[in-house]
Structure formats: structure tokens, C-alpha cells
Amino acid sequence: MSEQTYKGSANSFHGAVTAIVTIEDGKITKVESENIASNTPGELAINRMKRKMGEHQTADIDAVSGASSSTTNFRKAVKKALAVYHGDLSEAEAMDASVNVPGESDDNEGINRPKKSPTRAPIFYSDGLQFDYTYDVVVVGSGGAGLAAAAQAAEDGLSVLICEKAGIPGGTTNYSGGVIQAAGTAYQKKFTKYQDDTTEKHANLWIAAGENRINEDLVKDLAEGAPKNIEWLANQGINWTSVYGHCHIPYVKDADFADRIHVYDGGGGMGDGIILTQTLLKTALKNGAEIRYESPVVSLVQVPGTKHVVGVVLSNRETGDRYIRANKGVILATSSIDHNEDLAKDLNAQQYHDLQDRACLSMITDTGDGITLGQMSGAAVAGMGGTIDFDSKTGNATDDRVPTMQSIFVNSNGQRFVCEDATYAYTYRAIFQQESQLGGHTYMIFDDNSLAAKGSVWTQETLAKDIEKKVVQKADSIEELASLIDVPVDNLRLTLSNWNANASKGIDPEFGRRTGIHELEAPYYVYKNKEANLGAIGGLKINVDCQVLDHHNKPIRGLFAAGLNAGGWIGPYYPGSGTAISGIVHQGRKAAQFIAKLAE
After folding, report:
1. Are 136 and 578 within 8 A, CB to CB?
2. Which of 133, 145, 214, 329 has the most CB atoms lying inside 10 A of its own CB?
3. Which residue intervals of 469-578 are DSSP H helices?
4. Quick check: helix, strand or coil at residue 200?
5. What is the mean pLDDT of residues 23-49?
6. How big is the CA angle at 585 (ends 584 and 590), to the nearest 5 degrees?
7. Which residues of 128-272 form beta strands (DSSP E)?
């Protein structure tokens, strides 16, 4: 029988994807794709799925964790192409992305729901324990922290194994903008007015934002290391193209603010972090590191009677458990407790709240594995509480180049409660507190004049659509507005009266607002604030060498943690974009550098 090709299409995250299936003698010989968005987790995962389908000559390949939506829909497209081959669909039906595979329901049902952490108690080392493989360093997780650690360790000549729970590399860092905060760099001088910024000022800002809940040594070390990390990444091919700033924090001195958020070519938007992770992975692999996918670490191997970690147990569905010796150290880099509801309920009220709202956008595989592994080996935790929350609809206060639109926020008592143009997670910490304490929602109120002002989220056309969908509601009077959002009308009238009186003078003496200070008048529009969550704050307690500490602040020999798997370097709210990736890269490198010194 001659070779023939068939096509199928299905809707995916970035639009319709097309599968091209080649069949010869009744067997799948090749699976190709079209319309796959480049530089995305979906592209990585679909390429992996295509290889598996070709190797096993079947479309019945499980969705690749890390991009479940993309691969589930690509599998659907492949099955539709096969349905054409079998005569169950016409070519036109197969290419209609809205048509399902005959006899099958929507494959997307139930994907991306949180799973339990697979971790187990430590395995105690004995002379009879046989290790399957030995490396100098085992890195647990291939997000930004894990890949920075692997890249640095491999550059330093150490043998490195990266154990990745998902089917693709990059973790939640893939979904970030990849931006990094640093002070005093050549790029800051080139692209901004801040010619004399210092790492000390940078540290001062982070310390103030920490509200006495952080380890100042960790923060100072990060601020000092950040410019070096910018250059390290530039040497790997990252091209820095601009620098901007985050929005203010009311109680932080203006002297400590500066534009410090470094953006690379192709970066800055949601999902652009994949450029950073692919760069780090390339460096690691080029220098000899190895990576194993769909291989979560389920246990640490520990010397009995001591706090000394000598290896890990990784579990793979196809090969089973494998014992890996780490001659120099294990680096935990599996993010925080993002999708672990049990730990969030115990340790982080705001994260638990966001999980109930299904607001968490981080990788579904982020179930706090590194934290539970550390705890079971005697580690302490630090910095628990707080989240990386923002409003994905409005993008409010995520960039100091974009002013907050003419609006105010009110709580369920009809009162203002926060500086609306303060940096986004500071505002969302206040929103969470108000909603928890008062048992009601919070709202953004704006008017027709807001639409034409700089920083407006809506146009007349998009507002009309959101009103039709009831995302936004309209009221012709304060009384109607109060009724719509169920707040005391007298309180709301007083709130608007006070705001308008001060706004007419261009001031906000109550909360120190700086942008979008204008009077509001009927008709009013109201939008219910809704958080989007990029992960939890808090993790294992570490020192500046990223050694994991026990409850007596003593290092656990052979165990390290980096990035959001570590705690104590971010306070009770996220201080501004670029902080996380800065810490992730820095601590990954620091852990690897300390281990390299041990190897000398």
C-alpha cells in the first residue's frame, strides 16, 4: 500500500492546531504538526508527543504533563486525522476544530486539576543499599532555579542529573515574563535615567517590603549577586533590550526606588520565560548535564541517625524506582506549595483562598514536593504566607509606565482600603485581607471619563461587551451602585464624596495614590476584583549558601534549596516583577557554586 497523509484539527490554548499523520501499510509512520505557537510549553510538549506516537505507532499516548491542554488537543487532532483514514470523518469535518472525534467526549474534561504530592518518607542509607547511578549533583526540578543550578554546576565541571516531574522542562518559569531585577548594571545605565543606583538601595527596598519577616542576609546577598547574574545570562546569549520599574510601595522611601526590571529580546510577556529556561537548559546540556522527564523524586536517601542526605529515589512509570547517589549534594528546586491544598491550609491562608477560587496559574505539578521532602528530613520552613497575586483582567499596577486608571477600590462596607496604584501584590494582599475579614467582595469603581484616560483597561467597545457578559455592571446613581454590589449606601456616598473632594485638588491624603486621581461621577461602572495567582511565597529555611537548615539553624549536610522552594527572602507579599526570577537564578547558582567549592 502506498504512503498516504491525513489531517485533523482541534482547538488549543494558542488557537487551532493541525496534525498531519502519515500512514503506510496500515501503520503510523510519521506524525507532524502545523500552527503550533513557537517558543511555548505547548510546542515542547507536542514535539515530545509526536516522537512518542511515531515510536509506538499509536495515537493513544498520554497527555504530556506540563502542557496537558496543548497535548490533549493535539492528540484529538491526530485521532481526527485517523478518523478520516478509517472513513469515520470527512476531510472537511476533520479540519473543523469544533468537531469532536466520533464516539469520544471532550478530552479536556478534568485536565490540569491538582494532584497529591507523590513524596514518601526518607530512605535510610546502609552499606547494602545499591545505587543505580551516581552523580556529583542531583537537581530536583527543572524550573528556572533548577536549570540555573544545573547550568552553573555543569560549567564548573560537576556531573549533574536533573530530575523533572513533568514531561517538559522549564516549570512555572516558562509562564513568566522572564524579567529580572538588578541594580547598577550597564543596561540600567543605558536604558534608564538611574545612573547611580546601588545594590544597597535595592536591598533596602526589598527589606522594607519584607515587613520584618525576611532574612536580611539573604536579601542583601541577592541584591549584590543580581548584576553578576545579568552578565552571566548575557554570556549565554540573553540579549537585554530594556529596563523598567515596578509601581511604588507607600511606606518605602522614594530614594530606594529605581527602574531595575531587565527585559530580554522576546521577553516581558506571560509565557516568555521559556526563552530563559531554554537558554539555561542548553548551557547545562552542552556542559554534560543530563535530564530525565516524568521522573519525580519521591524520597531523599539519608544516613540514619544523622541529618546527611546522600541521594534521592526517583520514580518513573516505565522504569520504576531508581536510586541515585549524589556525591556532593541534592538541590531542591520544585517551587513552593502552589497546588498543595493541605499544606496551603496549614501554612498559607492566602494561597489556600486562591486555590479555592481556582486562581493558581502555576504548573499543576507544583505540589510542594521539595518542601515535604525537606521537612521529612528535618528541615525548617521560613517565610510562609503571601502569594504572587495580580489581576489578569486589568493588569493593574504591574508596570510603572502604565498609570492606574481613574478608579477607586471599595470593600463590602463601601469604603476605600488601599492605595490602588501601589505594586500589584501589595494591593492584592489588602484585597485578600479585606475579603477575609469582612466576608464580602471588593470592587473597582470607575466612570465614563476613565475610559479616555491613560491607563484605561476598557474602551467603549470592550466595556459594552463586558457589561453584556456581566463582568462589569453599570449604575446611574450612587444608590443603584450600592444596591448592585450590596454595600451600605451612606458609606459609599461618603467614600465617593471624600474621594472627589481630594481628587479635585489632585491629592490622596488617605492612601498616597499617585496616578489616576480624578473625580468620579454617574453613570458608574463596577468590576469585582478577581485575583490570578502565580504561586505561593515561602519554603525551606536556607542560609546564603542555600544550605537547607534544620529547626536549630544547622545545615542539613548535602541538602540545598533554591528559588521559591526556599523561604525567607520574600516577605508577606510579592514586592514587584522580576524579584522571583532574580532570586531563582541567583540561588540556583549559589547552591551550585558552594557545592563546587566542596569538590575542590
Report:
1. no
2. 145
3. 478-485, 489-503
4. helix
5. 82
6. 100
7. 133-140, 160-163, 180-181, 240-244, 261-264
